[in-house]
Amino acid sequence: QLAAMARSDPASLAAVCNFCVGRRGVGAVRWLEPSDVRGLDLDATVQLSKGSIEVYLDEASKPEVGRGLNKAAEVTMLRIHRLDKDSGKPTTDPEAIDRFARKLKKLTAEQGARFVSYDAASGTWKFEVEHFSKYGLLGSDGEDSDEDLGA
């Protein structure tokens, strides 16, 4: 779509509303304000991995808050489940799911983000950020070990 916009109206890339970058089966990020995407190298700027997102991997190239892609966005992470220790599959235990959802809420707040929702059936975790750093399941501690998280 960006290529088509660039061909038909290059100036339109200066303020793309609801600009979204996604990776099938992993998640997506949608910026909440119009974004200037002229000359943007998405591969070098946005890293969306299982359970985490990082924008501006190189701190030296990160613009000040509110500029470029360093601004408010909604992040959606897919296939984030609490795994059953015996089967290795997403747990169906309501208590374990509830503990995991509470852990995601706490982890979100600790990273300075705002928890939006968690759907245990699909493993969809949504949160909002004011600007970019690295967010997600980043070496979290607590009752679940990394191998228990479906991320």
From TrEMBL:
Give coiled-coil spans as residue ranges. none
Q: Where in the cell is it found?
A: Nucleus, Nuclear pore complex
Q: Name one Pfam family in it.
A: Nucleoporin2
GO molecular function per UniProt? nuclear localization sequence binding; RNA binding; structural constituent of nuclear pore
List, alphabetically, the GO terms of the cellular component aspect: nuclear pore cytoplasmic filaments
> What range(s) does the Peptidase S59 domain occupy?
1-132
Query: What processes in GO biological process is this protein linked to?
Result: mRNA transport; post-transcriptional tethering of RNA polymerase II gene DNA at nuclear periphery; protein import into nucleus; RNA export from nucleus; telomere tethering at nuclear periphery
**PROSITE patterns (alphabetical):** NUP_C
Q: What's in the keyword line of the UniProt record?
A: mRNA transport, Nuclear pore complex, Nucleus, Protein transport, Translocation, Transport
Identify the main location: nucleus
**Known PANTHER family for this protein?**
NUCLEAR PORE COMPLEX PROTEIN NUP98-NUP96, NUCLEOPORIN
Family membership noted in the UniProt record: Belongs to the nucleoporin GLFG family.
Q: Could you tell me what this protein is called?
A: Peptidase S59 domain-containing protein
Q: What is the lineage of its organism?
A: Eukaryota, Viridiplantae, Chlorophyta, core chlorophytes, Trebouxiophyceae
